[in-house]
Specification:
Blueprint: E1 14-16, E2 21-23, H1 25-42, E3 52-55, H2 60-72, E4 78-84, H3 93-105, E5 109-114, H4 115-119, H5 123-132, H6 139-157, E6 162-164, H7 169-181, H8 185-190, E7 204-206, H9 214-223, H10 234-238, H11 242-256, H12 260-271, E8 286-287, E9 294-295, H13 303-312
Parallel strand pairs: 3-4, 3-6, 4-5, 6-7
Antiparallel strand pairs: 1-2, 8-9
Helix pairs in contact: 1-9, 2-9, 7-11, 7-12
The structure holds zinc ion (ZN) (2 copies).
Residues 4, 6-7, 10, 23-24, 26-27 line the site of one zinc ion.
């Protein structure tokens, strides 16, 4: 059994392709925690005293994010939010219990909300109505938009300063390529960690794991003893997206040239730094005339209200005000 290239004492457990190093479990953990902390520091993602709400899906990435943030930051300043999408066979009661336990074990408060309760229809309801109406809108659109809107609402109502999501390097590399293929310059700038705050209603989102490979979060979770029941969303197979094709392409390149994804993100960070934009080009979000939530520049209706009007002919406004520890 080869020894770890860092401590030269313990047996290696991981071969890190992008550095060529063999690492033992302890040195691998330290490496991931240090790289995450460095990224947070580099972009000043968390200021002293900030309350940070972590989006916790129960998957390996959100477990790793929770695990690392609760080591390097004060757990009483952290919270977790789980959004129940309302997808048959995907949201399971025992899964939610496991999430609740994992979060509380670390001294972090957990909030559980459901899309149906907040916005009047579950993702399954929206997809069913959408198919009935012959609309060709992907379930991921309904899900993603309402998840984000729910998390922003919880964060704002409960006084959090930041929302931390568990997007990893693979997710970020895919998003960059997709936006390049679409020629969407505005979105490229908006995805940069230094983008300006577009609206007071919008709680700043941070992605501390953006330079950590997905295989690394998977390995970290596994070595830390976390065995999530990773249930694949049933809609993924039905509606293969551009993201899946881009992912496969990037994986082929990464396999032959390890480190490509990291170099792509470093390049992106330099080129799409929004501080390089002139003031006249800066991005200011609009406010939706129906729900009052922030929306893309120049829009009067937010995407969520637009989707709901398309489906229901009306919009359900979040029915209840959040309370601390609120759970549905
Ligand atoms: Zn070691
Ligand atoms: Zn709206």
């Amino acid at each position: 059994m080869p020894k770890c290239d860092i401590c030269r004492a313990r047996d290696a457990a991981v071969l890190q392709a992008h550095t060529g190093l063999r690492l033992c479990k302890a040195c691998f953990f330290s490496d991931i925690v240090a790289r995450t902390a460095r990224e947070i520091f580099r972009y000043n993602m968390i200021r002293y005293g900030d309350k940070v709400l972590i989006g916790v899906s129960g998957g390996k990435d959100s477990f790793v994010l929770l695990n690392i943030l609760s080591q390097i930051y004060e757990p009483s300043k952290l919270g977790g939010v789980t959004v129940i999408e309302g997808i048959e066979g995907y949201n399971r009661a025992e899964h939610i219990d496991e999430i609740r336990r994992a979060v509380r074990e670390r001294g972090v408060e957990i909030h559980i909300v459901s899309i149906k309760d907040l916005w009047g229809a579950s993702v399954d309801d929206m997809v069913r109505l959408s198919i009935e109406k012959g609309q060709r809108i992907s379930p991921c659109t309904y899900c993603g938009i309402h998840r984000r809107k729910s998390i922003n609402l919880v964060a704002r109502e409960l006084g959090y300063d930041k929302v931390a999501t568990a997007h990893n390097l693979d997710d970020e590399a895919q998003t960059i390529i997709i936006n390049i293929l679409r020629g969407d310059t505005a979105r490229l700038y908006m995805n940069h960690p230094l983008r300006p705050k577009g609206s007071e209603l919008f709680i700043d989102r941070i992605k501390p794991l953006r330079k950590i490979y997905e295989w690394e979060t998977a390995k970290y979770a596994y070595l830390a003893g976390y065995r999530p029941q990773e249930v694949e969303c049933p809609y993924l197979e039905l509606f293969p997206s551009l993201r899946v094709r881009v992912r496969d392409m990037i994986y082929r390149i990464e396999a032959s040239r390890p480190g490509s994804m990291l170099r792509l993100l470093e390049w992106f960070d330099r080129v799409f730094d929004p501080s390089r934009l002139r003031a006249s080009e800066s991005i200011k979000l609009s406010t939706c005339i129906i729900c009052g939530e922030p929306t893309s520049p120049g829009r009067t209706l937010c995407k969520s209200c637009e989707l709901q009007i398309g489906l229901l002919g009306k919009v359900e406004i979040a029915k209840r005000t959040m309370k601390r520890g609120h759970s549905i």
